[in-house]
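Annotated sample (chain length 361).
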Amino acid sequence: MSKRWLVTGGAGFIGSNFVLEARKNNLAKVMTLDLLTYAGNRANLAALDHDPDHEFVRGDISDPSLVKSLLLSFKPTAIFHFAAESHVDRSIDHPGIFLKTNVEGTFVLLDEVRKYLSVSSPSDRKGFRFIHVSTDEVFGSLGPADPPFTEKTPYAPNSPYAASKAASDHLARAYFHTYGLPVITTNCSNNFGPWQFPEKLIPTVILAAIEGKEIPLYGDGLNVRDWLYVGDHVRAIRRIHEAGSLGETYNIGGNSERTNRKVIDTILAILDQERPRPDGRSYMEQVKLVTDRPGHDRRYAMDASRLKRELSWSPEFSFESAIGETVRWYLTNEAWWKDIRSRTYSGERLGVLADLKTGGK
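Output written by the structure step:
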């Protein structure tokens, strides 16, 4: 197999969907590098345990010697950089962790790839790609009537998480312009789908509902996000790897803007049908407004027209067409999320958290 893909953060939500899709379609030999912190889960890749063309390495992207050794031994033809701390509320409480992973980790990857390519053969350098996966949160917040973010929107991050991702984007750009590293950056909107960590909005709502707990909703519930099904995101990244222009950025969005209130209402209406409450009442009664979090961006929306125009990509799934399948996935995969919530990550005992996470990346 000629293609060899090194996927960082490949045991996380989006990364594992990408790895599973790549191996399902026999697109490349894959090496997954993941530190398995709270959001990384080896079980996400259990289907590949006996796949000879998938190798899992537990390790830190901030470790230069490890990254160097993997590059020299595996000789990847592309790197897909998903690894990141991405939980906004955690970044408010522990910003230093986000700087280490998202900024220092991205720097180590870029610099070790620069060194690796500098001594590689012309044939190994040809076609090599470094796909840096980022977020719409680097652009800040939109007003209700503002046009969606484009690739030219100035960066204006409003949380430590967003600031750390913005810094990593700037590093990726700098390594292209300074060293000619074949980098392409993607900025995606909020993802949803299978394998998403239970701390995020959609799984939080599903699990709180079926466990009879309060479903907390920040502020007035009118914060808006553009929702992107993870399968569409994976397909977009594959297309960008195939035909994207070096040094450029591409917005990936789902064309599915929804208020948080609307997202919750949709999920709970599905649950009312799929798994009715024993007392026959609606799950809507469990929703409770709570104090908004600091720096909570009001609205995100992505203009992905460049991706459609230049690379012929557009989302196949609307929010409505995929959310039902997502809800059913969590209902039928209780062993997966119960196992996550029974573990201790970073000294925390995880359950459905008291505050609602609105990030999807």
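Annotation: Residues 344-360 have pLDDT under 50 and may be disordered.
Annotation: The radius of gyration is 20 Å.
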